[in-house]
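Lab notebook: predicted structure, single chain.

Context: the supervisor wants predicted structures on file for every construct in the current expression panel, including those that have not yet been purified. This is the next one on the list. No modifications to the sequence; it matches the entry in the shared construct table.
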Amino acid sequence: MRILFIADHLKFGGAERHLVAVATGLAALGNEVAVAYMKPHDELVSELTEGGVAKVICCNSRGGIDLAAIHRLALLIQNFRPTLLVATLQYSLMLTVLARFWTRRHTPLLFVCHSMEHVQRARSDRIRFAVYRQFYRRAEHVVFVSALQRTYFQELGVHPRSDEVIHNGIDLDRFSAATVASASCELRRKLGFADSDLVIGMCAGFREEKRQVDLLEALRQLRDGGFPAKALLVGDGVMRAQIEVRRDALGLQDAVVLCGFQQDVRPYVAACDVMALTSHAETFPIATLEYMALGKPLVASNVGGLSEQVNDGHNGLLYPAGDIDALVGCLKQLSDSAVRQSFGRIARQHVVARFSLPAMIERFRATCVSLAAQVRQP
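Prediction complete. Output recorded below exactly as produced.
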């Protein structure tokens, strides 16, 4: 097959990392794969080319219905002559539908949906979604990344022509504790953590919905209760200043380490005792699967498809988003090293059994083969 993926941009992010995994996975199976990205953010280009993607091309969209960008994408479709188009976010879906119409070719279109609550969060989001939802049925098939996400869109009245759920998968060999054991021990010492410290980690962009400040509030309560807890926050973004202000207001300057953005988070995760996700909105995060694959006990807010990843009390702990007391209670349960080891071991086993990268790639391969059979010559 010749498969053309279309993305909004190639910044570091969950949807973009998912694109890299699927595109390079399908290329490794002998398919000719190309990637077009609308906006000129190219941080992930090298991963795509090193992973066997034949072409990576920017369409230089300025946002909105950019006719020049649509024309560039249409020319790429005409020249590459893909047997299948794969759009990976709502904006790229819209532009792909318009570019396909321009080419007068009916190349089958697969849309991988990574959105959920944020499509309705603010008035501007609702206005954009009122436009984007018109394009869902223009795709021959929609892949949702969680069952709860599919139900959410059904309740909004979005009914694709056909759809399925394919859960995210991760590279279990790469996300193995043994691969970063020595680096993580050295990093923990370098960051100033003692063996007796309960280090709680979180890797996420510093955005409002990620709510790192909830973890800071919980950390203050833990330390006031006599627990030697500290936090390691990996990431950066627009909320950094607010996070720093709240850290200082809580008197946590010596208990919180901000590491900034890290391209390889594995040593940082492995250096922690517990991993947390305190988001107030998620879809089906890859990061939490990576935490569990590295054998780390997980405390996560029960949002999005987290309940499809975490069997509460078995391979992790879930709490109601925004409930700081409940978050503190979960973290207290994991202050015991034996409990942490048990949860971490079961978490790794759970990810191996249900969320491997090869299993995800095979599901996408089968779907692509089925859709490619619908190709009609112009």
